[in-house]
Amino acid sequence: MSVGFIGAGQLAFALARGFTAAGILAAHKITASSPDTDLPTVSGLRKMGVNFTVSNKDTVKSSDVLFLAVKPPIIPFILDEVGPDIEPRHIVVSCAAGVTISSIEKKLSAFCPTPKVIRCMTNTPVIVREGATVYATGTHADVEDGKLLEQLMASVGFCTEVEEDLIDAVTGLSGSGPAYAFTALDALADGGVKMGLPRRLAVRLGAQALLGAAKMLLESDQHPGQLKDNVCSPGGATIHALHFLESGGFRSLLINAVEASCIRTRELQHLADREKISPADIKKTLLDKVKLESPSLSVASASKVSLFNTKS
Amino acid sequence: EVGELRVGFVGAGRMAVGLAQGLLRAGKVPASSILVSAPSEKNLDTWRESGCRTTHCNLEVLQESNLVFLATKPHILPHVLLEIRPAVGPHHIVVSLAAGVSLQTLQRLLPTGTKVLRLMPNLPCVVQAGAMVFALGSCASDREATLLKHLLSSCGLCEEVPEPYINIHTGLSGSGVAYVYLFAEALAEGAVKMGMPGGLASRIAAQTLLGAAKMMLETGEHPAKLRGDVCTPGGTTIHALHQLEKGALRATVMNAVEAATNRACDMAKD
């Protein structure tokens, strides 16, 4: 089985690194493409032994499982570009937040009657094989196709199938989640430094504390509330600290964060559906490069790009 | 032992009434075995109606009873102790209900060797759903602890604790009953705002608290787990809980318990 990545940025890099480290895929079975060769991840991919090309079409031709690993506004351009090369054997996996299966199927159906589409939401810790991934299968993707993807993604962390309408919530929780954790870790380290610890040690200890706590929770039947209680000796240091967290509305801040990320994902999806994303969101140089590869692509006007141009 | 029990109350106020009624309702002690003293007639009618014997003489309570509850207001207690001291003997078990009066103080003002205990009940003892903690003085033993637990478990939860926990119990459960009333009132008001009549809302609020508490006690499950069990994804409950978290309800409740406990400690020092 070969895997291809359209896009050679953080996501492609993280997944390629994860798959190769897991031994589920050899580097030479992976192809990644991007018109932009200056990305720092490009050299990383090359060093791994991944086949890098500037031609998205080449990636499609040499892959069975094709990951669309580009930013959401770029997806429609990609689909128009590579659509003609999609064959029945291809499993197209979109990792783009807020891009629906139906929008992808609609685009691809211009080229291929029954495109196999799977929508996926993963997160950056796939790079260390501790990712959190969910996927939803499209109209023409079989159970085996889903299982194949699940096998791939399970090699780099936790992976499970969900209904598509839950994916925005997953984005808010585990998609964005590592960012919340990094923020918390930065602050915890500040706390440590304030109380006298050297920065490096503070970061190391904070990260290990969160890692250990997460591992305990995953391996326990107990409710996190119970695990918390187990740490809080009566009148001790921890309960005093927790009181501060509660006073600051710690819990509600986290709930707010997950909610905000989920809502924003939905907003972006609606913006995309209503074709309201302006070309300013897309680097002009990138757009030009894409147009070079696919002269048939049309850009409607200077002020608005129609994201769902059908071939005329 | 319980059969030979003669129970006395010095002070006839609400707390004493609550405990006595609990004992009577559970049938642990016949009314005729209970003697209560109070300076005025004011509080004694309820006692007489239940069949208890009454007096205006504190010493008489000591002479007639072997288990004596001291249920006066805290600032009066030292005077009462000096008054009854001559009648206190080694056969007595003296249980003080006075908030803020330490075992050390009690033992200092009573004859050496007296079996002294401190008890902190809460108001729902009256309906046999109280939460009580007690601490043993230096001359009180397991025997007294067992007796008290046996008698008072008819009034609700009754546990022996180290003395420092008594002030915490005040903050948690003594005063805590008031926090619950406040919460119940607020629940009902929310319902009234949404269109439900107040009386009905109040009764439902109370039953909700009762039911939730019962589930906690009967399942022994962590309240966080029980809370999670009620929260359907994207449903009404989680939306409501988010509001509570935004209002930092947890921290506020912790503040309340802390404030009441600290106040109990401060009052004890006075």
Automatic annotation (TrEMBL), chain A:
Pathway(s) it belongs to: Amino-acid biosynthesis; L-proline biosynthesis; L-proline from L-glutamate 5-semialdehyde: step 1/1
GO BP, sorted A to Z: cellular response to oxidative stress; L-proline biosynthetic process
Similarity comment: family membership: Belongs to the pyrroline-5-carboxylate reductase family.
Superkingdom of origin: Eukaryota
Gene Ontology CC, one term: mitochondrion
SUPFAM superfamilies named among the record's database cross-references: 6-phosphogluconate dehydrogenase C-terminal domain-like (SSF48179), NAD(P)-binding Rossmann-fold domains (SSF51735)
Chief subcellular location: mitochondrion
Compartment(s) where it occurs, according to its Swiss-Prot or TrEMBL record: Mitochondrion
Annotated binding of NADP(+), by residue: I6, G7, A8, G9, Q10, L11, S34, A69, V70, K71, P72, C95, A96, A97
GO molecular function: pyrroline-5-carboxylate reductase activity
Entry keyword set: Acetylation, Amino-acid biosynthesis, Mitochondrion, NADP, Oxidoreductase, Phosphoprotein, Proline biosynthesis, Signal
Reaction equations catalysed: L-proline + NAD(+) = (S)-1-pyrroline-5-carboxylate + NADH + 2 H(+); L-proline + NADP(+) = (S)-1-pyrroline-5-carboxylate + NADPH + 2 H(+)
First-tier enzyme category under EC: oxidoreductase
Gene name of the encoded protein: Pycr2
Domain Pyrroline-5-carboxylate reductase catalytic N-terminal: 3-98
Signal peptide residues on this chain, from the entry's feature table: 1-16
Name the UniProt record assigns to this protein: Pyrroline-5-carboxylate reductase
EC number: 1.5.1.2
Domain Pyrroline-5-carboxylate reductase dimerisation: from-to ranges: 164-268
Binding site for NADPH: N56
Automatic annotation (TrEMBL), chain B:
Keyword Cytoplasm: yes
Catalytic reaction list: L-proline + NADP(+) = (S)-1-pyrroline-5-carboxylate + NADPH + 2 H(+); L-proline + NAD(+) = (S)-1-pyrroline-5-carboxylate + NADH + 2 H(+)
GO MF annotation list: pyrroline-5-carboxylate reductase activity
The EC number(s) this enzyme carries: 1.5.1.2
Pathway(s) it belongs to: Amino-acid biosynthesis; L-proline biosynthesis; L-proline from L-glutamate 5-semialdehyde: step 1/1
Main enzyme class: oxidoreductase
Gene3D superfamilies, alphabetized: NAD(P)-binding Rossmann-like Domain, ProC C-terminal domain-like
Coiled coil: none
Residues annotated as domain Pyrroline-5-carboxylate reductase dimerisation: 163-265
Keywords associated with the record: Amino-acid biosynthesis, Cytoplasm, NADP, Oxidoreductase, Proline biosynthesis
Assembly and binders: Homodecamer; composed of 5 homodimers.
Descriptive protein name: Pyrroline-5-carboxylate reductase
Organism, as annotated: Rhinopomastus cyanomelas
Encoding gene, per UniProt annotation: Pycr3
